[in-house]
């Protein structure tokens, strides 16, 4: 399921619910519907930047490696491109940019409405 984030100061951002959950949990926000007010945006940016920085310190976990092998096997597959893991920072970047724009332009970020 997708979550559509909206703000008057930035284009819409679509995220899979499973990826948005980590960010919304960090900000103590509900998944179904919510708002990050202009006043909350600066704190949200700081929290998300901190979480991104922390995620960059850790290597790909053993669990992710197991999942990759389980889904793609350990045999050579010359017909497919190599698997690339999408990092948390890459997934969070569009929403982080929206939050920065909301902070700078004093607008709210909404979803589920």
Automatic annotation (TrEMBL):
Tell me, what's a Pfam family for it? DUF1840
Residue numbers spanned by region Disordered: 54-83
Q: Per its UniProt entry, which superkingdom is the organism in?
A: Bacteria
InterPro entries with a match to the protein in the record: DUF1840
Q: What is this protein called?
A: DUF1840 domain-containing protein
What organism is listed for this UniProt entry? Answer: Massilia hydrophila
């Amino acid at each position: 399921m997708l979550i559509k984030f909206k703000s008057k100061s930035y284009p819409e951002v679509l995220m899979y619910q499973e990826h948005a959950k980590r960010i919304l949990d960090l900000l103590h926000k509900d998944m179904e519907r919510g708002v990050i007010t202009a006043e909350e945006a600066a704190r949200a940016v700081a929290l998300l930047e901190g979480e991104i920085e922390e995620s960059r310190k850790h290597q790909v976990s053993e669990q992710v490696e197991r999942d990759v092998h389980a889904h793609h096997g350990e045999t050579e597959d010359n017909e497919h491109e190599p698997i690339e893991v999408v990092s948390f920072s890459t997934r969070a970047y569009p929403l982080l940019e929206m939050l920065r724009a909301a902070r700078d332009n004093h607008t709210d970020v909404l979803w589920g409405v």
